[in-house]
Design a protein that fits this description.
Length: 78
């Protein structure tokens, strides 16, 4: 199987829009997707408004999250 992924980010709608195409020798199967991307500030606001008191963001190395971090770990406590 081969998986071909084409994605782009729409700043206006804050969405990652793309297509995934799976090829296995027969007719390819293509699926479209649209995923809402939330900023850390938006996530923090959502969590606080739903009863969480403390919200912290880290990277996988347990360091403070930065714009260069490849992943986010969110620690939220009630």
């Amino acid at each position: 199987y081969d998986l071909w992924i084409s994605e782009s980010y729409d700043k206006a709608t804050k969405r990652l829009i793309g297509t995934w195409t799976l090829r296995n020798g027969s007719e390819p199967i293509t699926k479209e997707n649209s995923i809402r991307i939330y900023s850390n500030d938006e996530l923090k606001e959502l969590l606080i408004s739903n009863g969480f008191k403390s919200v912290r963001f880290f990277d996988p190395n347990n360091k403070s999250f930065t714009d260069n971090s490849k992943e986010t770990i969110i620690v939220a406590t009630k």
